[in-house]
Amino acid sequence: MATGAGRPISEQVAFSFAAAEPEITRAPRPRSVKLRITPPSGGTLFSVEGASETLGAISLYERLGWIYGAVSRVAMDIAGLPRVVRRGPDPRDDEIEDHPALAILNDPNWCMSGDELMECIVTYLELAGGAYLLNGIGLPKPRLWPLRPDRVQPVILANGELKGWEYRSYEETVALAPEMVIPITYFSPREPIGGRLSPLAPVRVAAQSMIAAMTWNSRFFDRGAAPGGILTTDQTINENEFQRLEQDVADNWTGTENAFGTLILDRGLKWQAIEGAHKDMGFEGLMRMTREEVLGALGVPPAIVGDFKQANYAQVEMQLKTYWIHKLQPIIRRLGTTLTRFIVRPFDPSGKQRLSFDTANIKVLQEDLNARAQREEIWVRTGLRTRAELREELGLPPYPGAEEPLLSTSYVPALTKQERDEHTQQQIAAKAAASVPVPPADAAANRGTVPATTRAAKVVGRSRILLRRYESSLMRAENRLLVVWNDLLYRVEREVVANVRKRPPLPPARAAEDTEEPLVPLSISLPAPIESYLPEQVKLVAQAKDLHAQVFRNLIAEFGADALNEVASGLAFDYGHSRVLSMVQRDRERIEAVVLRLLDDIRDELNAGLEAGETLKQMTDRIRQAVAASAETPERGGPYVRAERIARTEAEAAAGFARYEAFTQIGVERHRWVNAADNFVRESHKDEAEGGVGGEVRDVGEPFSNGLYYPGDPSGAPGEVINCRCLAEPMVEG
């Protein structure tokens, strides 16, 4: 029975893998812990890559800057990612914030933090092709200890089954059962079970050549930077002349301070070099070639390790994105899968929980907002998806008429056969009414009769098509704003929650207890002012203004151009007019008020949570509800009710103002209020016959009966503006 070093705490642990529970024997503070393990019987020990090759890779890591820079960069980037456990494999599944596996990974042993252990794992994985952890899951105090990969060897049975492991220290060999070691390895084609292959193995010769060249250079300068060569002459030189010549060479031609100096020879002496010059050695080309080979094998782009030669901003950004997608994410998935199997699964009887690394804050992995909006617009415009499907994906409630597909040519919903027949009958009725002769004597008395009939028939057809086009455009505008605000609110939520989590709600004494849901007031461990948990107000306001204004200005220009096309083709909308710029500035002020209201809501909820003595989980839910402006806790990353309300209101404000401004610019005198004509229309916006504003005709510049100058007018009462879907239709003759 072999023994090996273990944890330096006051226990001796005797392991017997045949027993159901580990046997624990207390001892008076021994210097080390002995793990007594029954070695696996039978099996063959084979060398995976060889301890010497692993040590060789570690030597390259210690001696070559490019290898150190690439490997350490990968290790630190992955180690710095937050580790989360979710209830299922879907990234949108809820997090389990107090999962035991997270406690073990964040505090793996008495001398390493969670980030240090993860950095150790990834470093060994990149250098040796494998990392091994001594698995202490199931002990009274679970611990994880990293093992040097050059000292770990698998024991394989004749049938290819893994029998166990052997760990070879300086003094002895320890046999470990299969479950005692957590292997994280790269695939080796020579040994698929228990094997590992270092990424540096294919470039080992090139790297060693580079070290040999560096050693040659080092020795050259160590010996005084004197070039190798001989002096020859046909004449006789006495001892004094030889000593003078030797001293002259030493004083004027050796050493770095005499580099590129001139040696004056007399008495027929000639210099004959016996070794190649530095420029002939091709050190620079060798270094460049070796660097490219090493970085290619490791999968790390040059810019990641500081090589910005011939790399502009776009190329650096692309290299950074490639680095995260093709290098780090495969390692992250491998780590998540292995750690889930060995560390999460023992605490999860269902087998559904997953450990993963949170990359939500990695900028290069976030989808460009403009690209996403354009892609979604193309899907809807080409009929590949309906608006209802898109809203369901974004988590938005149903929208009237959103289930109807749009025509790719005009953004107009395709009419059913019944609707086309109705439209045809309306056109026939309008023509018949227009052709009814009016006696000259009664023309004045009946002036409004025939035109009114004609207008009514036209409104049924024209307004219906116009309204559908407008709803489609409004939907796209709302989605573009929703993407901006969902992303902004998610970042606010994440920052506030992270700030609260930095101060664990449990005092140290209670944190060590095995309690599932400790009900300790947060006020005990959160003495800092509430403001310290909130984002910086000035920075957040400026960010919200800039992100929103960029989309808001574009929406005004687009809706203004659409409104002019309803009147006549070829008209240009002046989006640089002073009235447009003034509207954008007023909207920025409204956005500032929106952000301040958001911060006030979060501040109030934090105070309420502290007064109620809530747990960290309860406080986190409260923060998310405050950000979302919802009584229910939203899913991670939204969608948020607050974002939906802001996007819908601001889209209507941009559309309504743009149409109003377009009519003003081309001199349209009158416009008509048109409602959505469905069951969702609010009472004050229903038709005039029902006591609403629908159907009212007013001069452009004159308010409607509800006080608004146009639908969505932000100067109106909130009850008249929020979630409004009405539009103003220009009244143009013909």
What's the short story on this structure?
With 734 residues, the protein is an alpha+beta fold.
Architecture overview:
- There is one protein chain.
- The chain is α+β, with helices and mostly antiparallel strands and 734 residues long.
- The protein has a domain at 369-437 and 447-512 and 529-730.
- 46% of the residues lie in helices and 9% in strands.
- It contains 19 helices and 16 strands.
- It has helices spanning 51-63, 65-79, 100-106, 114-128, 204-222, 239-252, 278-281, 283-298, 313-344, 369-381, 387-394, 417-434, 449-501, 508-511, 537-567, 578-612, 616-628, 641-666, 718-721; strands at residues 12-14, 23-25, 44-45, 83-86, 130-135, 144-147, 152-156, 162-168, 173-176, 181-185, 229-232, 270-273, 354-357, 670-674, 697-699, 727-730.
- The strands form 6 sheets. The protein has a 4-stranded antiparallel beta sheet with strand order 3-7-8-9, with no helix packed on it. A 3-stranded antiparallel beta sheet has the order 6-5-10. It has a 3-stranded antiparallel beta sheet with strand order 15-14-16, sandwiched between helices.
- Helix 2 (65-79) packs across helix 4 (114-128).
- It is elongated, with a radius of gyration of 38 Å.
- It starts with 11 loop residues before the first strand and ends with a strand.
- Mean pLDDT is 76; it is low at 1-49, 408-415, 433-460 and 504-527.
